[in-house]
UniProtKB/TrEMBL annotation:
Residues 457-491, 505-593, 802-826 are annotated as: Disordered. Residues 614-725 form the Telomere length regulation protein conserved domain. Belongs to the TEL2 family. This is Telomeric DNA binding protein.
Length: 1043
């Protein structure tokens, strides 16, 4: 494919129609990359920009849809090829094309993070999308997007889209991860996409772009658009200015270190500085709000690194070199202090704003602003003082900025405020009154203070006003004894202000060794160190996990290295003359090496095709049908369940191939003795039932009554139906338990025990999935009847008086092994494809019931026609006691989970009740045996009992299972409508069930037991019959019409 457009369209069509395997997938990716100029051996061309902008976004969307299928099967090379379609490896030769790809990836991936994206994002692709966005943020930031849209053919609309998606990326990622976590996703936001880390890198790349643009004299409107967007996001914030590890993103901590270095390059640096007018031309056209926020943030951050705790406190009685350098930086960034200019209004507004309050830096910030204003003309200095005094002398400011509602500073009750007013009055009189006016001797300082106090008192009370003495204006001097000495009451602040009168920071001399970084070089290093630590920790963890996995999977060495003593022993047979032995001569080491190196002896291994991990559901059926290859079967069983569950909501692939996979899995045998064969097959078929509930359950119901399967395979079908239904209904599915070992010393370690346990041990333990689920259901239903009986006053009183052991709730310390085991005992389940209530009747219960009646009818006809000959043919497996027991238990679990189905009361409950009473009544023993206490007195009876148990040993199994099926149907009916539908529409059926259960209970009470009722089934029939009788009695009491 030489034409890039045709190559991209061909890949798009192939992804849409489906690619066969991972090798073809990788080949097509590599071919397209070579065609568009991003391959390792291809020649890049700038003519492909338009082609990439037009066709690549659709290809990227299709690639995202294939992530669940091919990403787990890709090797390192295939993963690198896939990443190249979103985030190519940066290089100088492919930089223009790579930037176009990155821009398209930004738009495609951020669209996939939306709540309702155009193309739904598979759950398995979420981590890939976040990792790719993190790589894009590091490799292709705002500078790459700028050059991608400002090349030979500028595209302003794409630039606007790039600015929009790049500035909103952290919020979109956080919102998407929050929604996914609510749905049960366990991932998290990558460290690179956390707002503080992301915008630090973003602003540093933006500053590098600004310097590059400044050297080429390009248009600044596009860059100003980025600053406007950052200002609207609040990145020009002024607090916190001194904290590096704060999670709040800010513009200046990442901008100032490199910007100051570019404004004043170090000696010997080949890089030219910014032009003088670059930053004023860029910043002053900003909106008023953003310009004011920028200037306020700039002032605070310039002052933060030359203030405590980063440096020693500045002396107020001498000029500061750092303040002068900061003022010069202000000149270079916002321009000179021209009265009434945009920069002037922004600086004055920042000084007088109540929102600008940076603790510890306000004094230095004000000195920087004063030095910046002092660098202008005389008119600018006077205008600056007028603006400050206008705010200082505002009566509202005097009134509401103080602790009480007073009118003047000098008469304020707070000593700090009063001394500040005295100091300002003295300074103002000194600066405004000429020196010649106070040459004549005047009153003492005590007289001046008394005169001032009398004047102030006279303003409040005119009668006490003293007559004004004639004379000219005089300077105020509050230098009386003790006025400024000591500590407290504002004296320290007054002394500092008095010592700073007349000090101009512009007079400071700049040394050659001065720091133009203003302390921000250390801040940059600390920020880089913090970001590097954040990025290094996840990488180290991932590397440790990969090393751990590789160590676990490393096979044990089959060749043992010899020690020096063993190496000295020659591995050669004994010499023999051939006369004393009939054995052949031992082969020499050289001969063995020659045989080992002979390639003709490894023909089978050379011709053996390497199996690949399945990526499509249809490949599972192909692997399972290859019964002569144990590797194919093991590969399908190992990856079958996760593959099916991963694609359960991904198109119709599972639905189309579920029946063929289920048929191939059921027909499997285990002649190769594969590890954990039965457990893997059971999980695979259960996953098919849960993920395709409209196709697989009817198929299993049909195959169950076929004569082509063994009893073990039929049990797999029933267990899959029951566990899949419970999963769809949101109920727990018990895990398969192994046989309990009384003595731990007789049990192998856990990993060896799991390796050598067999399916026979699981079956003999009596604790399979089906048995565990039915045991929990039986205990739940019978406990309801027990709770109802305990409501009787006499029984309740007896229970209160009974002293028993209090059950304690199991707790475990957080983070302990017991806590992790308790948390793992309740695994999170996936959301059901279809609620079980919608498919219970049509696809689960009724197919089993209807096919059972059909089979039962045919079997009865053949039995009457052929007699005993049919019984000995071995085809009556479905009606054997063990098979009937599992069948009825499965129906009981399906019925118990289907109580919320719309057709339960009118269709499902009567159908299963009719089946249970029919099967249970037919398995009543022909000759009931009395188990007497003294069986030795009646040896004939004992012999009959033994023979009856040998011949009909499964009657107790069938009767107990039928009673549990009836109990599940009756319990749900009583809870839903108190048995009204059954009592009014199926009264005869309810009476028949009651009579049958009552008879079974009476026989148990009289000591007449069904054959096979001993062992673990002891008391089961009696308890189940009692439960059914209680439910029938409740219905009868509620609806008397059935009597």
């Amino acid at each position: 494919m030489d034409d890039p457009a045709e190559a991209l369209k061909g890949l798009r069509d192939s992804l849409r129609s489906g690619i066969g395997d991972a090798d073809e997938y990788t080949f097509q990716l590599s071919s397209v990359l070579d065609a568009i100029g991003l391959g390792p051996m291809s020649a890049p061309s700038s003519d492909n920009d338009r082609t990439i902008q037009r066709f690549l976004p659709t290809v990227q969307q299709r690639l995202l849809s294939t992530i669940p299928t091919f990403l787990p099967a890709l090797d390192q090379r295939g993963r690198k090829l896939l990443d190249s379609f979103f985030c190519p490896t940066p290089s100088a030769s492919t930089a223009p094309l790579a930037r176009q790809v990155a821009l398209a990836a930004y738009l495609t991936l951020t669209a996939a993070l939306a709540p309702a994206p155009p193309t739904p994002l598979p759950m398995e692709a979420r981590e890939f999308v976040l990792d790719t966005l993190a790589s894009l943020a590091q490799a292709y930031s705002i500078d790459a997007l700028y050059w991608a849209t400002h090349g030979r053919d500028p595209t302003p609309l794409l630039w606007e889209d790039g600015v929009r998606v790049s500035t909103s990326l952290p919020s979109k990622v956080a919102n998407a991860v929050g929604r996914w976590k609510e749905g049960g996703w366990a991932g998290d936001v990558p460290a690179v996409l956390v707002p503080r880390a992301y915008f630090d890198n973003y602003v540093r790349r933006l500053e590098g772009l600004l310097w590059e643009v400044s050297q080429n004299s390009l248009d600044l409107a596009s860059l100003r658009e980025v600053l406007e967007k950052l200002g609207r996001l609040g990145l020009f914030s002024i607090a916190p200015a001194t904290e590096i590890d704060t999670p709040t993103p800010s513009f200046f901590p990442a901008f100032l270190p490199s910007a100051l270095e570019h404004l004043h390059p170090p000696p010997g640096s080949p890089l030219p500085p910014y032009p003088d007018s670059f930053f004023p031309d860029l910043l002053l056209p900003l909106s008023d709000a953003n310009l004011k926020a920028f200037v306020a943030g700039l002032l605070v951050h310039l002052a933060s690194r030359i203030s405590p705790p980063f440096t020693t406190p500045m002396a107020a009685d001498r000029p500061s070199e750092s303040v002068k350098r900061a003022a010069l930086v202000m000149n270079q960034i916002i321009g000179k202090p021209d009265t009434g200019s945009d920069a002037w209004r922004a600086v004055v507004g920042a000084l007088l704003s109540k929102s600008v309050s940076a603790e510890g830096t306000m004094d230095v910030m004000r000195r920087i602003a004063a030095a910046w204003a002092g660098s202008g003309s005389i008119a600018a200095k006077h205008a600056f003082l007028d603006a400050i005094l206008e705010a200082w002398c505002d009566p509202k400011h005097i009134k509401y900025a103080s602790y009480a509602s007073q009118y003047t500073y000098l008469f304020h009750p707070e000593p700090k405020i009063r001394r500040l007013g005295m100091l300002i009055a003295e300074i103002m009189s000194e600066r405004t009154i000429e020196e010649g006016c106070d040459d004549a001797p005047g009153p003492s300082e005590e007289d001046q203070m008394k005169e001032l106090q009398d004047k102030l008192m006279g303003e409040q009370d005119p009668s006490k006003a003293a007559p004004k003495a004639p004379g000219g204006p005089k300077r105020l001097k509050f230098g009386f004894k003790g006025a400024w000495d000591g500590d407290g009451e504002g004296k320290e602040e007054a002394r500092v202000l008095r010592s700073g009168v007349g000090i101009r920071d512009d007079d400071a001399s700049l040394s050659d060794a001065g720091d133009w970084q203003l302390g921000w070089r250390d801040g940059q290093q600390a920020a880089d160190k913090r970001q590097g630590t954040e990025q290094a920790v996840p990488k180290l963890k991932a590397k440790a996990e990969r090393q751990g996995r590789s160590t676990d999977k490393k096979p044990r060495p089959k060749v043992v290295m010899l020690d020096p003593d063993q190496e000295a022993d020659p591995l050669q047979g004994y010499d023999s003359d051939g006369t004393g032995s009939s054995r052949s001569r031992s082969p020499s080491p050289s001969y063995l090496a020659e045989v080992t190196a002979d390639p003709t002896l490894a023909l089978d291994a050379a011709k053996k095709k390497k199996l690949k991990r399945p990526v499509y559901v249809r490949q599972l059926a192909e692997l399972l049908r290859d019964k002569d290859s144990p590797e194919s079967i093991e590969l399908a069983l190992t990856y079958g369940e996760p593959l099916i569950r991963a694609k359960r909501n991904f198109g119709g692939e599972v639905v189309e191939n579920a029946v063929s996979v289920a048929g191939a899995a059921i027909a499997l045998a285990n002649p190769f003795h594969l590890d954990d064969f039965e457990n893997k097959r059971q999980r695979l078929i259960t996953a098919l039932v849960a993920c395709s509930p409209t196709n697989v359950p009817p198929f299993l119901a049909q195959q169950y009554f076929s004569q082509s399967y063994s009893l073990l395979q039929k049990g797999v079908m029933l267990t899959a139906l029951a566990m899949g239904a419970r999963e769809l209904a949101g109920l727990s599915a018990p895990e398969t338990r192994t046989k309990k070992v009384d003595f731990p010393s007789k049990m192998l370690p856990s990993h060896l025990h799991e390796k050598y346990i067999t399916s026979t041990d699981v079956q003999n333990s009596g604790q399979g999935q089906l048995e565990g689920a039915i045991s929990g259901m039986r205990n739940l239903l019978l406990s309801k009847g027990a709770a109802a009986g305990e409501a009787h006053p006499d029984i309740a009183r007896q229970k209160r008086l009974t002293v028993g052991q209090t059950k304690r709730r199991k707790v475990a310390e957080e983070g302990s092994l017991a806590s992790r085991q308790m948390s793992q005992s309740t695994p999170s389940q996936q959301t059901a494809v279809i609620p079980y209530a919608q498919v219970a009747g049509e696809y689960f219960i009724l197919p089993l019931v209807n096919r059972f009646w059909e089979y039962f009818q045919n079997a009865s006809v053949r039995s009457r026609t052929l007699g005993d000959r049919y019984r000995g043919a071995g085809t009556g497996m479905v009606l054997s006691p063990s098979a009937l027991e599992k069948f009825l238990l499965t129906l009981a679990l399906l019925t118990h989970a289907a109580r919320h189905a719309p057709s339960f009361l009118s269709v499902l409950a009567p159908a299963v009740l009719e089946l249970s009473v029919t099967v249970g009544a037919r398995h009543r023993p022909a000759a009931q045996t009395l188990i007497a206490a003294d069986s030795s007195a009646h040896p004939a009876s004992a012999g009959q009992a033994a023979s009856s148990q040998d011949g009909d040993g499964g009657d107790a199994q069938v009767v107990g299972s039928a009673l549990e099926l009836a109990l599940a149907a009756l319990d749900a009916s009583v809870e839903l409508d108190a048995g009204r539908t059954l009592a009014l529409d199926h009264a005869e059926l309810v009476l028949a069930v009651g009579e049958w259960a009552h008879g079974a209970f009476e026989r148990e009470q009289a000591g007449l037991k069904n054959a096979g009722a001993g062992g673990s089934r002891e008391g089961r029939v009696r308890a189940d019959a009692a439960g059914v009788v209680v439910k029938i009695a409740e219905i009868g009491e509620k609806w008397g019409a059935m009597r």
